[in-house]
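User: I'm curious whether this sequence folds into something compact or stays loose and floppy. Could you predict its structure so I can see for myself?
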Amino acid sequence: MWLVREEPAPEIPRLTYLNIRMLDTPAIGIQQSLKEVIRMGQTVIQMMNELEPMLSNQPPEEKKADEIFQKENDLDIIQMEIVQFLGDILSGNISHDVIDESRRQIRMADEFESVSDYIAAILKLRLKLRDNQLTISPEGLEELRTLHKKAADYLRMVQTVLEEDNPTPEFFSEAQSKGTAITKYMKECRAHHLARVEAGKVSPLKSLIYTDMLSSYRRIKDHAFNIAEVLVGEK
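Assistant: Here's the prediction. I'll summarize afterward.
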């Protein structure tokens, strides 16, 4: 050991403010982990805001794209840290309320991480259009941007209830109706797009990319609705 010293293991950077000493006071620990879950929600909303300007036929800025991908990578790590922290809490002698809240937070962290995955997927599809020198028709762009706004507004609605801790029955009813409306609009966009395909206005590759983008927005809505269910105790 003196002649050939071992290299110190690289320290893995932590992205949350969770402290292992909080495990001795689980009630305080889950308050801190909730703050991290809320921060995940704020980050995915930032990602949606940053993605919106890229829904055009202008080349996306590489720096802005890299920032979105970095946020998605960071959320993977944050989710892992939250799950590990709450897993340690669950392994202790804790009350049923703390158990229930820990499980709720694990579920929400997973849903937010999934939202970030689909945002990154949309951006990758947008870059694929650029790399293949493909553009979207004005009609397709307008529908895509409208769908983006609807999904972003939906995320913000759920995030507001999470932050204010006010999951009323009216909120869940609104989440159901607006979620259904987003799905319906996505299907309308897809039908309009297929009509353009049948008219020979769209290439096969462009068609595949565009429909995948539409489907990704629907999945973002689905994961946001899952969070709404958790907030009202439906699942």
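Summary: Residues 170 and 176 are 10 Å apart (CA to CA). The chain has a mean pLDDT of 91.
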